[in-house]
Amino acid sequence: MAALFAPALVHAQGLPPNELGRVMILEYHKIDYPEERWTRTPENFRRDLETLYARGYRLQGLTAMLDGRITVPAGTTPIILTFDDSSPGQFRYIAKNGALEIDPKSGVGILEQFIKEKPDFGRAATFYVLPGASRPNKLFDQPEHEGRKLQFLVKQGYEIGNHTLWHANLGKYDEQTVRNQVAEAQVWVQRHVPDYKLRTLALPLGVYPKNLAWVQEGTAKGTTYKNEAVLMVAGGAAPSPFSKSFDPMRVPRIQAVEKDLSYWLKHFDRNPSDRFVSDGDPSTLTIPAGSRPKLKLNLPKDIKVSER
Ligand SMILES: [Zn+2]
Fold first, then answer.
1. pLDDT for 271-299, tens place per residue?
2. CA distance 233 to 252
């Protein structure tokens, strides 16, 4: 008799919708050589995308998710990509035959190529850049192209997030310094993309300021800022954004290194009911029967809940 349940073979395809399942927010640092704790090689990054695609994951925008708009197709699982520290290997331009092109071995080059091959993977990622860091982490390290890069990201629908002006350990500073770091990151980004609002903050080193309110919203350096979510550096898969246990001020992430990534992929293969599976309709929230008490209280007003 055939096994009814073969854990290694369970993909999202065929799973019923479960919009109370958990979502992986992957955290990349360097895309470069050699592979190590904070570095993924270009080849391994490409392989991550292939693996995720084959297992029914599709790219989801972070702020759309915060807004309660899950945009991935029915039967697939949203996955969120984040890139911290704007190191050169994440996004590089090279001159080829007198023309400028995105280095196909850089993170953005690999991602764009993959999306070209698999348009139904979607296009989304958030780049937590450092506009005022010293080299090589200042806006991907090509001063002559930094504006072009930020403009490209925004035009393509990628998001730019706040990682402070120069990677300040926010736990070490007083209120004014913390506020200046957050506000000034936005001011410096806006030199290249006017009016662009940074809506989320990834904490440098995962360290919270003494008072969370300092990074949530405020005015400093002549600008008003508001962070609707604060991302940590670890913590595993995130609760569904519709769940009571989702705290936008403490959003966990998964380090995109071999060990952690394969741990979580296996976890969701073995526990398919823990996995967020979209119903394909952003205006309807489909949840397992009897799980209404797990929903957060302040759901977007225009959303309809359906138990299956
Ligand atoms: Zn960082």
1. 999 999 999 999 999 999 999 999 999 99
2. 7
How many other C-beta atoms can be found within 10 angstroms of the C-beta atom of residue 237? 19
252 CA → ligand 1 middle, Å: 14
The answer to whether 35 touches 208, Cβ cutoff 8 Å, is no
What spacing in Å lies between the alpha carbon of 202 and ligand 1's midpoint? Answer: 8
Identify which of 221, 266, 250, 184 has the alpha carbon closest to the alpha carbon of residue 25.
250
Q: Classify residue 11 as exposed, middle or buried by CB count within 10 Å of its CB (0-12, 13-18, 19+).
A: middle
Instruction: Give residue 163 CA to ligand 1 midpoint distance, Å.
Output: 7
Q: What is the pTM of this model?
A: 0.95
**At CA 201, angle to CA 195 and CA 204, rounded to 5?**
130
Compute the distance from residue 167 Cα to the ligand 1 centre, in Å. Answer: 6
Residues 6+ apart with CB under 8 A from 151: 192, 193
DSSP states of 167-221 as a string?
A: ---GGGS-HHHHHHHHHHHHHHHHTTSTTPPP-EEEPGGGPPPSSTHHHHEEEET
Give the Å distance between the CA of 85 and the centre of ligand 1: 5
